[in-house]
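Bumping with the actual sequence this time:
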Amino acid sequence: MMEVMGIFPSKRRILLPGGMMRLAVQANEEGADLLEHVFLHTPAETRSIIGLVPNCSVDSDALNGIGTAGRILRSVRRRHMGNVTYEVLVEGLVRIRLHKAVSTDPFVKFEVEQLRESEPDAKDPRNADFFLRVAEFKRNAEELIGELAQHVPVISSMATLVRRAPVHLLCDVVLSSINVAFADKLAVLNVLGLEERYALAARLLAQQMQVWNTGSQIVQHIDGHQLKKKRELYLRNKLKEIQSELRDTAARNGTAPATPKNKTPPAPGSSSSS
């Protein structure tokens, strides 16, 4: 089913279904006319739907053929020193395919098709292997997000989204919450087959886990090296304190002259000349 939708060119940022994106667009930037229309003409209780479409490649400014329909959850217009900025929070809903441009004034509109996906049947024996891969993907995602959340607490909220995500949205939700290169995320956006998308998402997740594990090992090595250096420094300082106390005690008791620093004490039985 075709429909006309306002299109926001998200350039090198990609919103996947199930993910969130924050936009901050100044009045003279591309896409601002669409956000101004939403702000001025949409009732506060109505959540507008817009299409967010990235560039088709890193080196091109042309729109990609596939984008994401997003629901605007919050829209704020700020004025400062005569400048207007629109701040918007958008929730990704479903992939869309662009068909033809309808207008460009006052903002870009396209005739689009929503590419809705149904949930696979877990009871169908033919899907058994697929659901095993989904379960493994979910375990790995929860493990990585759990590790990341120890260092970036805000990521912990993603664990709940991953746990609750339906199968057809799970890999999109996971890849929205971790650092994935533009080209890789664009490839995921463009994959319309669910099994193929999971295969690609699993590979990207494995890469992220490898990067994280390698980084953790390096940090542990550095921490261990620094701990060793601190321990050695502490022991050296403690040894100096003990040597100083022994010299002071010997000097007070008259049992031996205090040894000057960096000098060897006289050998037993030797006499000093004045």
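The tokens above came from a reply further down the thread. Residues 218-224, 256-274 have pLDDT under 50 and may be disordered.
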